[in-house]
User: Which sequence fits this backbone?
């Protein structure tokens, strides 16, 4: 099976604090991976590294079979990776819900008409059409999560990185999210503290232990 | 009505200037300053008063102003909006945690801490914004799905008045 992501002997540190040492992670095509671990062990930093927002210190980092050494190696792959921020507020770039969801589409120079069609579709899928014209910063915590997630999903990335997607969602919405995510034929890496969600959704579960990833299932 | 209130408020500053001119008994100049500054204020309020800054920046983009400038206005307005939200949240927190403003060290320290927090938070926000811009493929332009609005009668009449006043500007001065 082809490999979406390969990390080998990777070290990641933040301000001299070493978070990961000799880290290995393989994610094959369409695999659903969950990562758990204590607060502050560096899960968000790991996802940011995979999303190309933070550079690793050493080791091998391959994304869709392309080795990545510097930031510029990441550029052509940018469109293939979607990243959901832990705090949705950080993610919003436009003040109105529909504009924000459309942002990455329009930035990839899709036509307005096409972008609108796709936005309509995803709003309907998520059941949040009533939020369309609202100001993103005034939404409730769960609504923000949904809008942010819609903004990621709408671009149809091949690899999705989701940082705690279920926190702030009620149980009905969680069910729905599991259903939506399970039906996608994409590779997905999820960081979550939510046991039930992980068990239902993930093919493989890793835990962060002693600055490494330990495979649980 | 809202605009009128804003105009009255801004006239406080105009009044200070005028009083200082009246002090040297130059009545003509005082009248001129009053009329002219009010003309400028009314024009500015008509253009920007009722709109929020997000829309103004989209308008600037439609007018083909440089993209970096438009993005600057746009993201500044985002931060100002978040700032005001932050301040309101802080007020609520103070209230909930039993803070009463007094003339005491503690009060001043709390306000000082708040300003410090705001500054730290803006650093944090700026950093996260740069990450979001990168991960969502920002290319020096902001977007909206909204169709550009058609010219309406109000705008056309404003344009005519402005043009006329520009033509007459020599005479007025
Ligand atoms: N900008 C920064 N500068 C210095 N240290 C940081 C910075 N950001 C995070 N850290 C530290 O790095 C460590 C890892 O942070 P990270 O956000 O990756 O943790 P996490 O595993 O996502 O935690 P959580 O489960 O609470 O979200 C933490 O100890 C944190 O204090
Ligand atoms: Mg985290």
Assistant:
């Amino acid at each position: 099976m082809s490999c979406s992501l390969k990390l080998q002997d990777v070290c990641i540190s933040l301000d001299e604090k070493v978070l990961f040492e000799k880290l290995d992670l393989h994610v094959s095509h369409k695999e659903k991976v969950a990562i758990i671990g204590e607060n502050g062990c560096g899960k968000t930093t790991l996802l940011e590294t995979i999303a190309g927002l933070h550079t690793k210190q050493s080791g091998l980092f391959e994304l869709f079979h392309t080795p990545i050494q510097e930031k510029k190696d990441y550029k052509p792959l940018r469109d293939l990776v979607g990243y959901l921020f832990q705090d949705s507020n950080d993610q919003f770039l436009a003040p109105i819900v529909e504009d924000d969801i459309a942002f990455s589409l329009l930035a990839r120079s899709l036509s307005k008409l096409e972008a609108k069609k796709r936005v309509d579709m995803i709003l309907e899928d998520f059941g949040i059409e009533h939020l369309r014209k609202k100001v993103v910063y005034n939404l409730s915590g769960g609504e923000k999560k949904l809008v942010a997630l819609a903004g990621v999903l709408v671009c149809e990335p091949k690899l999705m990185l989701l940082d705690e997607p279920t926190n702030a969602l009620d149980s009905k919405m969680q069910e729905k999210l599991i259903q939506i995510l399970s039906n996608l034929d994409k590779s997905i890496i999820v960081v979550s503290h939510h046991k039930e969600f992980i068990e239902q959704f993930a093919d493989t579960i890793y835990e962060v232990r002693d600055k490494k990833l330990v495979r649980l299932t | 009505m809202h605009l009128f209130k804003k105009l009255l408020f801004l006239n406080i500053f105009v009044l200070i200037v005028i009083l200082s001119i009246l002090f040297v008994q130059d009545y003509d100049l005082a009248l001129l300053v009053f009329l002219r500054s009010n003309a400028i204020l009314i024009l500015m309020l008509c253009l920007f008063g009722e709109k929020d800054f997000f829309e103004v920046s989209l308008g600037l983009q439609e007018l083909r102003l440089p993209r970096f400038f438009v993005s600057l206005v746009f993201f500044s307005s985002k931060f100002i909006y978040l700032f005001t939200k932050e301040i309101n949240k802080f007020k609520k927190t103070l209230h909930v945690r039993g803070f009463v403003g007094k003339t005491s060290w503690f009060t001043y320290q709390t306000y000082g801490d708040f300003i410090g927090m705001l500054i730290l938070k803006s650093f944090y926000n700026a950093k996260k914004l740069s990450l979001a811009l990168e991960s969502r493929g920002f290319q020096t332009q902001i977007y909206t799905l909204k169709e550009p609005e058609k010219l309406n009668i109000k705008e056309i009449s404003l344009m005519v008045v402005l043009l006329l006043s520009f033509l007459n500007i020599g005479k007025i001065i």
